[in-house]
Amino acid sequence: MFSPLKNNLQYGYGIFSQQFLSKKLIWGYGQYDCYSSLFLKVPEENLTLVIAANNNLLSDPARLIYGDVTYSLFALSFLKNYVFDFKEVPLMEDENTLNTLENRITKDNSEFYLKKLIAQSVAESFLAMFDMDKSERSKHILEQVFKQFPDYTTYGDLTLMHNLSFLKAVALNKEQRDFTDFDKELKDVGLQLISQDGDNPYANYYLANYYQQKDADSALLFYNKIINASNFSKNWYTTEAENWIKGQETEN
Q1: What is the pLDDT of residues 26-39, one digit of tens each?
Q2: Ranges of each domain in the chain
Q3: Tens digit of pLDDT for each residue in 92-108?
Q4: How far is CA 54 from CA 33, 40, 59, 60, 149, in A?
């Protein structure tokens, strides 16, 4: 597993440990195309959540591979109802409730709101592969996230960057080539993450994809960083970087 970019996570042999709202969370997950699972323990409360599914939806939409269980809506539902006193906070927002966020976010619940809003946006963007209305919902949630929490470079991470990049990819797949929403946020978060861990393949991959249609030289820079990173094994992102570079050489 790769080193975290900016959080208080600790990694072991498939087990993660992190702090969220002063509580220690011990967790792990499983994922393949046809199954997924989630194990979450809160030692201080002597509470444990275990879920298994015959699809990948427990893990993949929340990007648990990036090491933060609090982007899982399943985990957040458990935490808000059994660990924290947030029973009155709705897990999901719709178009009507999004307009009332400012009246519901307080100093005590703001961190939880930030996590659960991004978690829903990530899940909605995942479902946009099948229903474009989900893309609009994800977009509207993110607009509220950046309105209510404008200092996005302080909390921006790989999961948020994935969310922003995935919305752009879905739009491109639907031939919406003029989709420039959140370009500034995507670039700013990516450059912030790169400044902390220059070799991280995921941050470099998202930035390379961002620059593909805008600045081929910048895209080449980030793809080359993936290929030349000395502390990561070759993976799918390496293959994609190599294929893009070969395609550019062929065109030229």
Answers
A1: 999 998 888 899 99
A2: 1-82
A3: 999 899 999 999 999 99
A4: 9, 18, 12, 13, 36
